[in-house]
Amino acid sequence: MQYIPRQIESRIKHSLERNKSVLLFGARQTGKTTLISRFSAALSISFIQPDIRQRYEKSPHLLKGEVESIFDSSKRKRPLIILDEVQKVPDILDVVQDLIDRHKANFILTGSSARKLRHGASVNLLPGRVTTLKIDPFTLEEMPTRDLSERLLYGSLPGILAVAELADREQDLESYVTTYLEEEVRSEALVRNLGQFAKFLELSASESGNIINLRKLSQEIGVAHTTIAAYYQILEDCLIAQRIEPLTQSPTRKRLTKSEKFLFFDLGVRRIAAREGTKLPRETMGKIFEQFIGLELLRCAHIARSTIRIRFWRDPDGPEVDWIIDKNGDFTPIEVKWTNNPTSRDIRHVEIFLSEYSTAKVGYLVCQVPRKVKMSDRVTAIPWQMVDELVL
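User: That's the sequence. What structure does it adopt?
Assistant: Structure tokens below.
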């Protein structure tokens, strides 16, 4: 597969042009290494290789001397230094801060796990010195598809989509889940009982997109609900799942759901982790389609320059809306339906939401219609291929 331009690339370039360094997070195989290879660096170091990692673990200050030997005060442009998988040598960030503060270099730092960086008491997260960005699997704009079912089953990871045979994709996704368990969880000693965590991973993949019930999961696995919450934090820190918070303020409703949802970052990884096959019933495909749209909205929100949050809305005794685009308090409700023949019944909860929130002007039904359909004065049905336009 030839290189497919990534939308996040322009944001990285913009930050570097402003003499801001970049911390780029992304799960394994989302294309971080391919993307950063497109930038001309004076020095590029990957901490994936054990011998290189051990060298800088023993002597982080070596980086200081290497960069200073490159720095040329007569040049107006600072040299670019790339450090790949920086979470593996977190102490190096103190050296990076010193070099940034003394205007010796700009950096692109990448990481496939935020756990050590976020939870290490002494880890320097370079506040105010870096632009933190996230790279996801392909968006629809980056990698369009006509085969919706294929994308729902096999996901959007660049390395997986590059594989032509579906049987080979299945095998590669199996390897991905196994590698994640072995290298991300076991090697970092994140959990004491890998068997329990493996069972949790399967159940959490099955529950992806649903409102989380920690006590129910704890009963099924046989561990405390606090342990389940810690397991979800591991998924989030390792960039395997993303937390979706509900909209809890309402002018009229007092019992809006306050529990969160989690979405697995890729639908192919989710299906394999859940131990599901490829022959899924219509109801299940509808639920996965809802997650697909949620993931697409999240990916576009990560790319957009403005502050955008993706939420959901649910009254346990009444209506619910699958996704809410929250642009600093301006809401856009989005319902998702696995249909190509929408009816007024499909938009009734969107209409209720619009009537209750004055900052919500229009709503959308995302489905399989071939072109836009005006459903009411303020609600439009749109093809799923156009969902990026709602955010970008």
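The mean pLDDT is 92.
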